[in-house]
Amino acid sequence: MFVQLRNFVLLLGAACLSMNAVAADGRSYKLQKVEDGDTLVVEFAGGAERIQLAGIDAPEDTPNPKLQRDAQRTGLSEDVLLSIGDVSTSHLKSLVSPGQQVLLSGNLNRRDKYGRISLVVMDDQGNSLNEKMVADGYAVVLNRYPLDSIFRDQLKQRESEAIKQKRGLWGEYRETTMRWSGRGE
């Protein structure tokens, strides 16, 4: 019961991200593919749309300008960063598969600088993939991202627990993840 109530509050909070937002309609959408640890491609409005898991960031798993910036900022090699990106992407693929239905919640007009629609995405069991990736230790909270304060606080709590309990990337790849994420010990 608590989990269902918490998920309802998460959905409600995400839907209220902006008073003038065009909210997702609560329908399920078919997942086409997991692009990386924080991006999905879904069938949407007669085509394919890239969806960013709102409020979180995962390491890059393909060479691109962001990977280059991350390597320069952290002093880590691109190969090292790509290795943790691959692990993060694999984890998201273990949570949701192509063909599966996902529920989208949030502002359909909000796109990030990469052109992705930033939304809270729930799996077919009603679990937030955004929260799960952070709680399992494969993504971090984007502190500069505009989120409902309740949802942000929940994500931050999940991240703190993941770091403390050495889950996911915070375990085997702890030092690399600390440098990539900018989180201190």
Structure description:
With 185 residues, the chain is an alpha+beta fold. It has a single domain (2-180), classed as OB fold (Dihydrolipoamide Acetyltransferase, E2P). 42% of the residues lie in helices and 20% in strands. The protein has 7 helices and 7 strands. It has helices at residues 2-15, 65-74, 78-95, 129-135, 149-164, 169-172, 174-181; strands at residues 28-36, 39-44, 47-53, 56-57, 101-105, 117-122, 140-141. The protein has a 5-stranded mixed beta barrel with strand order 1-2-3-6-5. It has a two-stranded antiparallel ribbon with strand order 4-7. Strand 1 and strand 2 form a beta hairpin. 41% of the residues are buried. Residues 2-23 have low confidence and may be disordered.
Secondary structure elements and their pairing?
Blueprint: H1 2-15, E1 28-36, E2 39-44, E3 47-53, E4 56-57, H2 65-74, H3 78-95, E5 101-105, E6 117-122, H4 129-135, E7 140-141, H5 149-164, H6 169-172, H7 174-181
Parallel strand pairs: 3-6
Antiparallel strand pairs: 1-2, 1-5, 2-3, 4-7, 5-6
Top keywords for this entry?
alpha+beta, two-stranded antiparallel sheet, 7 helices, OB fold (Dihydrolipoamide Acetyltransferase, E2P), 185 residues, disordered N terminus
How big is the Rg?
Answer: 16 Å
CATH secondary-structure class: Mainly Beta
CATH architecture tag? Beta Barrel
State the share of residues found in helices, binned by percent. 40-55%
Strand order of the largest sheet: 1-2-3-6-5
Helix and strand succession? HEEEEHHEEHEHHH
What separation lies between the terminal Cα atoms? 35 Å
What does the largest sheet look like? Answer: 5 strands, mixed, barrel
Sheet/helix structural class = alpha+beta
Task: Name the shape in a single word.
Answer: globular
Beta strands, count: 7
Report the mean per-residue pLDDT as an integer: 87
- Helices, by number, come to 7
Please tell me the total number of domains.
Answer: 1
CATH topology, what is it called?
OB fold (Dihydrolipoamide Acetyltransferase, E2P)
Percent of residues in beta strands?
Answer: 15-25%
Stretches where pLDDT is under 50 for at least 5 consecutive residues are 2-23
